[in-house]
Amino acid sequence: MRQKNLLKEYETSYRMSDxxxxxxxxxxxxxxxxxxxxxxxxxxxxxxxxxxxxxKSLALLDVKPQNPKxxxxxxxxxxxxxxxIGITGIFSAVEVINELGQITDELRSYAQKQIMTWQxxxxxxxxxxxxxIEVPSELEETYRAVRIxxxxxxxxxxxxxxxxxxxxxxxxxxxxxxxHSTLAxxxxxxxxxxxxxxxxxKLDSTRAYLRRREKTWRIQFIExxxxxxxxxxxxxxxxxxxxxxxxxxxECQRQNGGFARAGIMGxxxxxxxxxxLSILKELGFL
Length: 286
What we know:
Helix content is 54%, strand content 1%. It is mainly alpha-helical and 286 residues long. Helix 3 packs parallel to helix 13, helix 5 runs antiparallel to helix 6 and helix 5 (86-99) crosses helix 7 (140-151).
């Protein structure tokens, strides 16, 4: 764990050094498997979700995967086999192939047909009840579905979806079911509102909620910090504590170049590496 002079070690004129970038890129590419995808454990088969995190992380560093065609074929092959299923799986495929500039009519048609079957009675997408405990927010699948439909340029009822999201707005300005606001749900809500044309800079109560969460801190894991920083960004805001945020992120980096969930524990994964790079990018360090 790197604890000493972290900012001085990595910053060059307030930007991360070339050495830092190479370390992270090398970590990501070491997770690239023969089937075309990525998996942090480096054991085949690749993970669609990890492949998405890997490609999006490389994009934050202005780098393309070493073999973009094989990465795209990892997902396109699943479409032909009929094994690309679920909102998360299709989201990963669309995000990656869109990033690589290889969206096909076949993928558009497949994604639209599959995703529209997941719209629920409340106007969102995915499960309303009995949500798996590992899912961070009841709005995650709605965000992913909306993002997919926007990328493939599909018409959708924006008013109905926005109304569903606003139904989860609480008195404290945050979002979450059962009147319990969370950073994750607030982040996803602001993402959805942005995608659907809401003027998020007018969400004053949500801004106040995020500023309170920033001031009290209570940040244990890098995903919490990601939701906070990116949630503020969705409202046109920057963190008031960039040095503190950056130090937390850099303490999560491991010797192999990847990032873990926290500074004092955990192994590096492609997911946490994506969160780390997204935060640094938002702060202007990449």
